[in-house]
């Protein structure tokens, strides 16, 4: 991945993302246990926004400190993208309807971020046009006693999408190599082997017709300070403030390292990570909406065949 950095705001041509999700599934089928990015040709102009630019490609590790959380390409203001975001939401509405009707495959969206990174806002802004019946959001907190007495993937596996569904993980199995690592809740040899276990888990899901797509909402430390301050100041946001957020903030660098390792170890051909610049909420929403809509479009869900002879039916009085 060629990220825009603070000094370099140029964008490389996007890879052609058409059929990418389908190819991802093929990738999982052909490379059992192996990780390799499928190649996409670069002879088409990049999509707008250029979300493929933020995809982390296996073998091309990223450095979070080199990725500018403030970038928004050429977009200047929220109002410049409102129509475009609406268009992407409409695509999502239509594609989700088809996925649900087809009832064969499903989509799992993983959202991770530092505290205040915008996971809740993304869900609200990107999915507001989607039929609630075809979409489920699962938020993961500290495991319960029962959850903690199973293998670490147990609680997540139960929440993966059934056929036809879009499930969103607001936090996810990645917490088990993030907070668990930073807070030393298990020894290093335990969390370190989890990268491979996670890759195998996601590969198994992909083989079972669940497309997996993962977003890290990348904010700066300054932006987090401002967002925490606004939670303290604004009575409508105060409920979101937790003094634990301050303790976590002191571990900012440790979390950045843990995120970097998780993303670099677990961005696979079949279940990619995207590092989304997220200081500007509206740009973050647009990037994620388009990435998801394109992923669904590449899956190309189809309405089931209709019954034969419908043209001869009259509805009795
Ligand atoms: P929030 O999303 O703000 O409600 O916070 C949820 C809290 O649960 C965060 O502090 C997470 O770090 C914590 N959490 C989520 N998953 C795990 C896990 N697997 N182990 C320990 N803590 C977790
Ligand atoms: Mg919180």
What does this structure look like?
By secondary structure, the protein is of the alpha/beta class. The protein contains twelve helices and five strands. It has one domain (14-274): P-loop containing nucleotide triphosphate hydrolases (Rossmann fold, 3-Layer(aba) Sandwich), CATH 3.40.50.300. The protein has helices at residues 20-30, 78-102, 119-126, 145-148, 154-157, 179-182, 188-192, 194-207, 221-233, 243-249, 252-266, 281-299; strands spanning 106-113, 135-139, 166-170, 210-218, 273-277. Strands 2-3-1-4-5 form a five-stranded parallel β-sheet, sandwiched between helices. The N and C termini lie far apart (63 Å). The protein binds adenosine monophosphate (AMP) and magnesium ion. The site of adenosine monophosphate has 9 residues, from helix 6.
Mean pLDDT, rounded to whole units?
90
Q: How many DSSP H or I helices?
A: 12
Number of strands: 5
Task: Kindly give the count of domains.
Answer: 1
Which ligands does the model contain, each kind named once?
Answer: adenosine monophosphate, magnesium ion
CATH topology: Rossmann fold
Task: Indicate the multimeric state.
Answer: single chain
Summarize the structure.
With 317 residues, the chain is α/β, with parallel strands linked by helices. It is built from twelve helices and five strands.
